[in-house]
Design goal:
176 residues; alpha+beta; two-stranded antiparallel ribbon
Length: 176
């Protein structure tokens, strides 16, 4: 987890004994039966700059998910991601953190890199994690004949429509 104090510095934060503040990110990588799933969730309690960046990150992710289909290469998906960062006003941001790739028995078996020739196939798991300083989104999907199946979706987490998918929204209210 990264609280408000570290949120704009760390994309994969280590837990620290510090207050979370009004905005924070939780990143989880968990394994079951040897297979790994990854997810990131964000909380913003009155931090408009986090919300603005999160909306842009969701748009980059939308492009990555739409490009993730059988036969597409990792390099091709990354090229789509690069273009999406430019469209949301952050053309070089894809170089600030890896963008994800194919998962499996490790968090990422193969990272997407420019021109990477690995073709996506039905049965592969992909996890994209587009990010900007202060915002990141991530889920693990199984590539099926019918499209992407979200393996880490939480029906109780707030969701927002992004393109044709429901994606995790920012949590804006804490119950207590």
């Amino acid at each position: 987890m990264a609280g408000e104090e570290r949120l704009f510095r760390h994309r994969h934060p280590l837990p620290k004994d510090r207050p979370l503040g009004r905005a924070f990110m939780a990143v989880a990588c968990a394994s079951r039966g040897g297979l790994v799933a990854n997810l990131t969730r964000m909380v913003a309690l009155g931090r408009p700059e986090v919300e603005a960046r999160y909306r842009r990150v969701l748009e980059v992710e939308r492009v990555a998910l739409e490009a993730s289909r059988p036969g597409a290469t990792l390099g091709g998906v990354l090229a789509a991601i690069q273009g999406a960062y430019g469209e949301v006003g952050f053309p070089g941001a894809w170089e600030e953190h890896h963008q994800g790739g194919v998962g499996g028995y490790r968090s990422r078996e193969v990272l997407a890199t420019p021109g990477h020739p690995l073709a996506l196939e039905v049965g592969m798991a992909v996890a994209w994690n587009p990010s900007l300083a202060g915002a990141k989104v991530e889920d693990t999907f199984l590539l099926t004949e019918e499209g992407l199946l979200n393996l880490t979706e939480d029906p109780f987490w707030p969701q927002v429509a992004i393109g044709s998918r429901r994606r995790p929204d920012l949590l804006r209210h804490l119950q207590g």
